Amino acid sequence: MAIQVYLCDDVPALRLVLRTVLELDGDVEIVGESGDGRTAVEDLERLRPDVLVLDLSLPELDGLEVLEELAARSPDTRVIVFSGYPEGQLGEAARSRGARRYVEKGTDIELVARYVREVALEAA
Amino acid sequence: MTPEAGTRLERLERAVQRSLGRRRALAVLALVAFLLVFVLGVLIDDPAEPGAVLYAVPVALLALALGTRFGVLGALLGGSLYWVAGIYRDASFSAAGLSYRFAALLILGILIGSLANRLGMNDLDAQRLLELAHEGVWTLDREGRTTFANPRIADLLGTTQAELLRSPASRWLAPGDPFMHRLAELREGMAEEFEARLVRTDGTELWAAVAAATITDRRGRPRGSLALLADVSERRRAEEELRRSEAGLAEAQRIAHVGSWEWDVRADQITWSAELHRIYGVDPATFDPTYEAYLERVHPDDRERVAGIVRAAFETHEPFAFAHRALRPDGTVRIIDSRGDVLVEDGEIVRMAGTAHDVTERAEVEEKLAVSAELRRRAVELNDTVVQRLAVAHYRLGDDGSEAAIALGAALAGAKELVRDLLGDEQPVPGSLRRESPAGGTFTPFEQ
Questions:
Q1: Which of B95, B130, B204, B226 registers the highest number of CB atoms within 10 A of its CB?
Q2: Cα distance from A67 to chain B (closest Cα, Å)?
Q3: pLDDT for res B22
Q4: Which residues pair with B100 in a beta bridge?
Q5: Radius of gyration in angstroms for the set of CA atoms belonging to chain A, rounded to a whole number
Q6: B56 or A116: which carries more pLDDT confidence?
Q7: A positions 70-109 inside 8 Å of B (CB)
Q8: Worst-scoring range by mean pLDDT, B110-119, B132-141, B330-339, B348-357?
Q9: pTM (2 d.p.)
Q10: Which residues of A touch B438 (CB under 8 A)?
Q11: 3-class secondary structure, A80
Q12: Which range among A115-119, B138-142, B290-294 shows the weakest confidence by mean pLDDT?
């Protein structure tokens, strides 16, 4: 059964890059995507995906707010933060709110694909 | 001085004078009584008989001691004793002779009683009043020597009546206190009240409310002063503490730029603290702090709102807090944080009181900080956009080692470094990373 992934990033081109890379091997299914935090929260409660790839800097609700909402609305969804902000400054804030991995934008995109498969195997 | 206090003081003055003359008058009267009875004895009966004298002296002294009311009774008793003793001693005494002696002693008793009353020798109530008086009663001669002191004055000064009579009054006066000067300045027949600082025997301070009057001799010549002293040290201490506390409060208000006001609604009397006058830029000497005058000093754009809040407080009796701008007479504007409370008794407002905090400087700093924070937020957002778009380009080009890829990688690293600097040490909180618009825009670098 494919790993169900939701993408939340306000840059459509990055969502496209992620979709392309993640769907390449056929074991990942992108069940939805959005460009702002509020739509993501609503979708996630309904879709309950296995993994969420989440940007932090977002319109409507930011990534930290999405993480807090997620704990109540879809607690089994595991989160990988994919952000332009340095991990040194935002990593702790994201992890303390439930994020499993942190990937800075600009680093190897394959790292996101690897983390998706890793966290999918971890206990919720 | 009130008429009542004057009457009381005069009464005490008379009592003291009577008390002072008592011993001398006693001695004179005892002598007169002795001589009178002796002469009567000689005239009426056998001059050789000493009985008249022996019985007459105790009668006279009894009359003296008991005074007017009991003088006659004393005389009757003494005369009766004399008469009975005469019969017992010598049955042959003629009835006429005994009657003469009896009548003579009776007259003597009445006479002495009457004299004692005139001289006020038996005013036992006055004597007792002096001893029990809560006030200290102190009489001084013109040289400042104590001529009389009741037990209370000794108690107040922490000494004894005997010591007071031995020492000059100046021993218990604080250096520089005008007590003696005030006594010397007294005009005859006039009583005056003032407060004096004295020093107890143990060195502690005694503040006394003094009611003073001159004492005159029988011919009306001044021979000293009478001072009535009440201990007001506690009140003075409380007043001093209140003064200090008020001064401290004014200083605290000045430092904190917090003024206070109080509105006695029943008397329609409003008072402003010194700092409140400073905050509104008005002179306490000329500014009349009425409610209307206060509204005049509120910025015209805030006036209606402020009046509405005060009206609502009148209706709801609830505490209130609001910010408004004050317009000083010189045209400058201050930002004021106001708070107030309403005191209600039996459903009616009796008092409103509150504070006004001049927060102009703080508000200005806060505004600058807010502007600075907003500028920084926009800078972070802008740089984040740059990072995101460079990242897209980076992923599109791929890391193929080309010059373009290397240059792009360096630009991305530089942009991320700038974001790191802009974020600084501030700990991000949920909501602080919210963007006003998406970073992606319509830019789509991939051709489908």
A1: B226
A2: 9
A3: 56
A4: none
A5: 13
A6: A116
A7: 84-86, 88-90, 93, 97, 104-106, 108-109
A8: B110-119
A9: 0.46
A10: 10-11, 35-36, 58-59
A11: strand
A12: B138-142
Strands A78-83 vs A51-54: parallel, antiparallel or unpaired:
parallel
**Residues B300, B294: contact at Cβ < 8 Å?**
no
Question: Between residues 34 and 63 of chain A, which touch chain B (CB distance below 8 Å)?
Answer: 35-37, 56-63
What is the least distance, in Å, from the CA of B305 to any CA of chain A?
34
| Nearest residue to B86 via CA among B34, B42, B43, B51 | B51
Residue B77 near residue B61 (C-beta atoms within 8 A): no
Average the pLDDT over each of B43-47, B325-329, B331-335, B388-392 and give the range with the smallest value.
B43-47
Interface of chain B against chain A, CB under 8 Å?
381, 384, 387-392, 394-396, 399, 409, 412-413, 416, 419-420, 423, 427-440, 443-446
Q: Which two tokens stand for residue B131?
A: 């001893």
Q: Which of A9, A17, A24, A57 to mutate to test the interface with B (most CBs of B within 10 A)?
A: A57
CA nearest A17 in B: which residue?
B395
Nearest to A58 by CA among B383, B437, B423: B437
The CA–CA distances, whole Å, from B74 to B21, B58, B167 equal 23, 10, 41
B371 CB-near residues (< 8 Å, 6+ apart)? none
Q: Quick one: pLDDT at residue B369?
A: 87
- Span B189-236, pLDDT tens digits: 677 888 889 999 999 989 999 888 888 776 777 788 888 888 998 888
List the structure tokens of B229. Answer: 């002293």
For residues B190 and B226, what is the distance between their CA atoms, to the nearest angstrom? 11
